[in-house]
Every structure is written in structure tokens, then in C-alpha cells.
Amino acid sequence: MIITRSNLPKNIPCYFLFYFVLIILALSLIGCDQSYNEVMADDTIDDVGVVLDLTNEALEQDDGDFILSELPVDFSALNAIIDEIIMQNLNAVGQFILYYLLIVWTFFLSLPVYIRAVSYISMIAAFIGTIASHALGIYRNKNEWQKHPGHDLMYSYFINSGTFQRKKSYNDAHKLLRDRKWLLVSFAGLAFRLGNYSNKSKILMFILAFAYIPLAIIGFCEMVFRILFGTIWLLVFNLIHSLMLFGTKLISFLMIPISKIFDNAMRNVQYCPHCYNTFNMPEFICPECGRVHKELIPGRCGVLFVRCGCNKKILPCATFTGRSRLVAKCPACTVELAAANARHLSIALIGGESTGKTAFLSAFSKSYIDNAKKKKALTVNGKPANYFDELSRIFSSGKTSKESESRTYSLVHRYGKREKDNLVIYDTLADYILADSYPRSPKYLGYCDGIIVLIDPLSVRSVRDTLATVGDTKTTTDYSADEVDKLVVQFKNQYAKICGIKSGKMSRIPVAIVVNKVDIEIVKSEIGWDTISELYNQNMAAYDNDLDGAKNQICRAYLEKLGLINVLNNIDATFLNVDYFPVSAIGHVSEEGVKFTPIGVLNPVAWIARKNHSSISVIFSPDGLCLKLVKLHEKFVKTLRSIKR
Ligand SMILES: [Zn+2]
Ligand SMILES: [Zn+2]
Q: Best label site of 291, 435, 440, 645, fewest CB within 10 Å?
């Protein structure tokens, strides 16, 4: 049979190349040894012998003499003497080892060149085998973590898993060290492969048989060195690794309480939009396996990060390491939360059916998100997304629909990667308030930071009659038939019950009375911004030079005129902070196909945010700036008037 490249085992040339390189390396080392031998052989070993003899003599002379003579004079002197003796003995031990190593070395150098060459080659291969066994032992066990029995998490690497992994790694490394079969870059490994290789070509097998004998001899020497030196190597590194893990374990135990304190301090109270439960530790979901972690906090599973029980994902376990970026669920009802650790600004939106609540929410959310887009380093996302998609459709199509359920809208504010604020609007169906029967508990009222009461002027018959007299029948087709005073009284009673407000006590929670549909001419002429400015400019002193105060007085007077005094009195009896806002959610008569052009929809929420010192006030800063400019203009006009006088 002709030997061709194709019927040669693929890696045979590589083996021989490696073999060749090692021989070259060994020969060059022998060259170094010879020159070393020439210089050192005669003098150094003799010198070492002399040094050792002198040391031994010194030790013999010292033996017993000064201990007996000095005792029991002075403990410090005694300690110094003991130290000296220990050092002398240690030196003696060191010299003893050095002495015998040198003897072994001399013996080795006296061996024939070819034995030394074989030793060098096998030592180099043994060193490679040791390093490879060590590295592979660690690599194979890199995902071996010890499971915590109480949580669906792994123990921290620095607390238990590290030791667990270390033991497995070094066990494996020792096994690999003793196993001659696996390593390709090894004479023992090559000899094993070659011994098990068969080929029909007798010529090839004959040639390979020649290669096998030296490979087997060097392989045997290699395995002896590998097991001898490798075992020492692995024991030393195992000890170093153990000491390091012991140190990190101590540090971890010290870090746990510190991390817990910071984590607790940075947590914000969370509210469930579904069951209205209050908590500050939601459940977190592993994005890899979907496991629910009820207590993702610093502990024995990790100080800053923990490894999930699926052993595939590292999860942040503290507020400051980004835990809130994980999907979170309410611990009571397991409904997904819009944000995990955001500061809440919760607002209850109250209004009768067809007051324009959905239109108001649609106009507000669109204006709010648009405003937020102008702010750098801040993004606002509406959750649940389908609610906000619906609001967006209503805004652009102009087609409003009747509410069929109570909803909770969340506007989650992200600053960089962190969720920091959550503006939550609870929209409760008027029917539930009027019937004093809530499908879900109304306990969200207990933690609301503000209330918006939406009033539809068209719900008042006199306004509709006036419009009818001027022939406007289009506007009056869509109005709230609910009785505003009954709605407000029912709500106020429910609120007082939930918040435990006794009669005669007042709530400081800000209440924004929003008069909607201010685009209608007969409403606009009474409380439109132009009218308010005009009335204010006519007699600033009457309004204490306060434009906001003027707006409140004018709107309140208008509602009184409409016969809603009972509503206002009921609100005033319970709430201390009440402001009035003329608003138009749609900006015109509701018409399908004509998009909204809202007026003043941001003002009520901006006022509630300011009253609560909420950081979301930043979204409204352009309006704030406008208000400042208006006030500046007022001051300018006032100054001019005083000069004229
Ligand atoms: Zn997982
Ligand atoms: Zn819940």
C-alpha cells in the first residue's frame, strides 16, 4: 500500500512537530547547564559545604550555653534569644534542604546527556500537563454553584459556592493530572493514542512502532513528574485559593448588613394598581427562567448580585445595583407592576359619565409625554401600553368612547436606566361611586396624593338651555347626566371613611376642581383664560395681585352661578387645598376625524405635583416659566401704572 497524505492520521505530523520543538528546547537547556556547570561545579558546592559546616559549628557552640546563663533574667532578652535560636534553626533547615537539593542537582548533572534530555523533555511536558489539568479542572466547574435550600437562588460565590466549586475543581484537576489519556500535548497521551491506533498499512504501522517506544519512555517519565510536581502544585494553589475564599467570606459577612441598610434606605413604598396593596418589596422575575423571587435582598446568596436557581442568570439584589430594572409583581395578587421602586404620585380622577374623563386622560397623557420628550435624560412610558395606545388613538381620531371599567394609568419616568417616578392616575367609574359599591376595594384613596374632580358645565340644565336658545344643538348632544353634587358627596364620604377623617377635621390633600369644555363660547366668556386675565388686569388689588387667586375666585364664582354651591361647600368642608382650573380636553366640539387641541390639561396635575414637591414637576417647567413671565409682565404693568399716577 502506498502511503499518501490522506491515509496518514491527521494529527501525526503535529505530534512530530511538537516532539521536535521539545527536543530543540531540551538541547538548548542542556547547553545552558553545561556552561553553568563549568562555572559553578568546582567552587559553589564547596562553598556551600563550608557554610554549612560553619553553621553547624556555631549551632553546637551555642547549644544550651546562653540559655542556661541568661535564664531567668529578663523575658524580653529571653524572647530575643528564643527568636535567635528559631531563626538559626530555620536557617539550618533551609541550608539542609538546599544542601540536599544541590546533591540531587549534582547527581542529575552527572547523568549522561541523553537521560538528562529525556528528563528535561518530560519535565516540560509534565509542567504543561499540570497547568492544563489545573485550568481544565477550574474551567469544567465554573458553573458549579451550591443551591440555597431556603430560596430559589445559589449561595454567593464568596460565601459557600466558591468553596463548593473549589473542591470540585481541585478534585477534577487531580483526576486529570493522573489521567494520561486526555491531553494531546503530552507524550503519555500521544503514546496512548499511538498504542491504540491501527491501520491496514503495515509500513505505516512499522514506522509508528518506532515512534511509540521513545514516546512511551518519555510519556512514563512525564507521568511520574506530572503526578509528583502536579500534586504539590495543586495542593499549594488549593491552599492559596482556600485562604483567599476565607478572606472574601469574612468581607462578605461584614458587607451584608451594610448593603441591607443602604438597600432598605433606598426603597420606596409601592402600590399595586390592581389590589391596591401597599408594600416596599415586590416579587422579582428572573428574565431567563421566569422564577419568582420573593426576597431578592442582600444576604448569603450575594451582597450586590445573586445567581438565580436556574444557574444561568446573575440578578441584582439591591436597589443601588439595579434590582428595579427586573420585571416586578405585586406580592399579594401577583399582577405585574408598572415600576418596581419608583416614587409614586397618585391621583384620583373623579367625574360623571360623559364629563370627558377619557378625553381628559387622552389629552393629558399626549401633552405630558410630548413635554417629557423635550427633556433630556428622561423618558416617560405609559403602562399598561394598551391603555395608552387607546388614549393615543382617541387623541388623533377625535373619537371618544364610553368607559366600561375602572382603570389605573401609570406614567413611569426613567432617568437613565433607573425608574424613579411613577405618576399614577386612578380613574374610577362614576357608577361605582354613585352606588357606593366598588368591585375592588377603594383603599387606593388612602394613599392618593391629589384628587381631580372633573366638572362638565353641560351637566347643568341652565347651561344647556342657554345653548339651546342660541341654536347650538350640536354641543349639547354629549354631556354628563350624572348629578355632580351626588357624585361629590358620595366620593367625599367614601374618602373620609377610608382615610379615617372625622367630622370637623380637614384633609390637606390638594383637590383640583377642573371645569371642562371651556372651549364652548358661553363657558369661555365666563372662565376662559382671556376673560380671567382681563378681569384680573382690571382690578389686581381685588385679587391681592395674585393671578392664580383670581383664576380660583372667578371659576368658583362661575360654578356658584351654575348652582353648584352644594358641591363646592362639600369639598370645602373636607379639603383645605382646593384650586380651580378651566380646561378643554378636546379643544372643540367632539367630532370624529378631528384631532384634539387641548387647553390647560397639564395645569391641574402640575399644581398637584408642586403641592407634593414631586420631582415630576420638572416636566411642567415650560409652563412654570410661562407663569413666571406672566407674573413678570404683571409687575411691569403695575409699575407703569404707578409711574403714570
Ligand atoms: Zn433564572
Ligand atoms: Zn396586587
A: 645
